[in-house]
Design goal:
Shape: elongated
Number of helices: 3
Radius of gyration: 26 Å
Structural class: alpha+beta
Distance between the termini: 85 Å
Largest sheet: 10 strands, mixed
Order of helices and strands: HHHEEEEEEEEEEEEEEE
Strand content: 15-25%
Length: 308
């Protein structure tokens, strides 16, 4: 009996010791996660430094990974935790994984939203902000330069670079991109220049584009065409001179081709619908004077490189 009790006591002591070490491990992970959260709260949103923001985004990801590790510690040692603790860890692990999944592919969208609020809307800089990034990473490069719009030396951009964010500025009834394409000064259907791609047009499967394309699609993700070129627009009651396409909220809009970039805020005061007082428009021209070659216009942007 004494041996049995002693053995039981030893097992109990070992369990308590292991549980204590597990608790300490989880405590350290939680403390680090809390510290990172404080750093983010007080270190990110009071600064205009994009590099600092990116660093803190990575800290938040690290914090989530620590939460994930803490939950995995619990679930990997089920004998030392109650059913309630296990259920809580399982639920928190699922939530943490979902958040990590969101941070990965959408980290660039978050950065754009942050820049839109903290830099552009606050009007804290007298310079333009141009963002470029490596897709699905937080490696951003940024270039600050004065008087981009109407500059005698406009910036030259390349296919796939971010030029703005999908929005609904100007005469607009819902978030989308109004893509106008011009060849040698004549407006043409964007589908005659874009890559041949199956897509959704007003809920029905269709195609848009040509095999020998001249420009690229301005979104990363699958898109939906909400209004085609040449139809009568129900909003302005005139021929629609563009292709209206949509992507997810805050989707970055990409340059469809190489060229010189110009920006404009087109006033819409007096219109029945006038969001933000004007439409944010980016124009990219293959020729610097925009008189010949291909020109693309990107309308209704929520954010764009703009003259301050």
């Amino acid at each position: 009996m004494f041996i049995t009790l002693a053995a039981a006591g030893l097992v109990s002591y070992r369990q308590a010791s292991i549980r204590s070490r597990l608790d300490e491990q989880i405590k350290l992970l939680d403390e680090q996660a809390e510290k990172d959260a404080r750093d983010i709260e007080f270190g990110t949103f009071d600064t205009q430094d994009v590099d600092t923001f990116i660093t803190n985004v990575d800290r938040q990801v690290s914090s989530l990974e620590q939460r994930k590790s803490a939950n995995e510690v619990v679930l990997a040692n089920q004998n030392y935790f109650s059913a309630e603790e296990l259920e809580s860890a399982k639920a928190d692990l699922e939530e943490t994984n979902q958040m990590l999944d969101k941070y990965g592919p959408e980290r660039e969208f978050m950065a754009l939203a942050w820049i839109d609020y903290n830099v552009l809307r606050q009007d804290s800089k007298s310079v333009d902000l141009y963002i470029d990034f490596v897709k699905n990473t937080s490696e951003f490069a940024y270039l600050l330069q004065k008087s981009l719009a109407g500059s005698e030396q406009p910036v030259y951009v390349h296919t796939g670079q971010i030029i703005g964010m999908q929005g609904c500025s100007g005469v607009c009834t819902g978030t989308h991109l109004h893509l106008v394409t011009t060849v040698d000064g004549v407006e043409v259907d964007p589908c005659t220049l874009l890559p041949l791609t199956p897509l959704t047009i007003w809920g029905s499967k269709s195609v848009c584009g040509v095999p020998a394309s001249k420009i690229a699609w301005p979104f990363y993700l699958p898109w939906i065409v909400t209004q085609e070129f040449g139809v009568i627009s129900p909003v302005v009651h005139d021929v629609h001179n563009a292709l209206d396409i949509i992507d997810r909220e805050y989707a970055p809009v990409l340059a469809a081709h190489d060229g010189w970039i110009y920006t404009e805020r087109r006033d819409c005061t007096g219109a029945v619908i006038c969001n933000s007082g004007a439409a944010n428009i980016v124009k990219i021209c293959t020729q610097k004077d925009c008189r010949a070659g291909i020109t693309t216009e990107y309308w209704h942007l929520a954010w764009m490189v703009e003259e301050r």
